[in-house]
TrEMBL record:
Keyword flag Nucleotidyltransferase: no
Domain of life: Bacteria
Protein name: Winged helix-turn-helix transcriptional regulator
Domain HTH hxlR-type residues, every copy: 12-110
UniProt organism field: Microtetraspora malaysiensis
Pfam family, one: HxlR
Keywords: DNA-binding, Transcription, Transcription regulation
Matches recorded under InterPro entries: HTH_HxlR, WH-like_DNA-bd_sf, WH_DNA-bd_sf
Length: 116
């Protein structure tokens, strides 16, 4: 799904929501930021395989979509902290039942592989 879909007003609500969380890292970043704010370096250490470039791009998209707040502290060196906005927390809460369903699906897959 392209970024332009996140701005399209002529889509159903599910498509509008998926457009905002589409991508490899957005849901895991939402999940991590639920617990507390993080600095970018902390997020990269928690997510091996996530490059600095992709992290920056993803966080900027999430900020543009109103999901995360970026706070820059005027100290040397500059300190940037990302946290969920109220809108981001609302999305995270809305995704909780979908996450539960996903875990049940994984349990079923594991069970079927054990039986085979």
């Amino acid at each position: 799904m392209t970024r332009s879909r996140a701005q399209d007003l002529n889509v159903c609500g599910v498509t509008a929501a998926i457009a905002v969380i589409d991508g490899k890292w957005k849901t895991i970043l939402l999940w991590l930021l639920e617990s507390h704010p993080y600095r970018p370096g902390e997020l990269r250490r928690r997510l091996p395989g996530l490059t600095e470039k992709v992290l920056t791009q993803t966080l900027r998209e999430m900020e543009a979509d109103g999901l995360v707040h970026r706070e820059v502290h005027d100290v040397r060196p500059l300190k940037t902290v990302y946290s969920l906005t109220a809108f981001g927390r609302e999305l995270s809460e809305a995704l909780a039942p979908l996450s539960d369903w996903g875990h049940r699906r994984l349990d079923r897959l594991a069970e079927s592989q054990r039986v085979s």
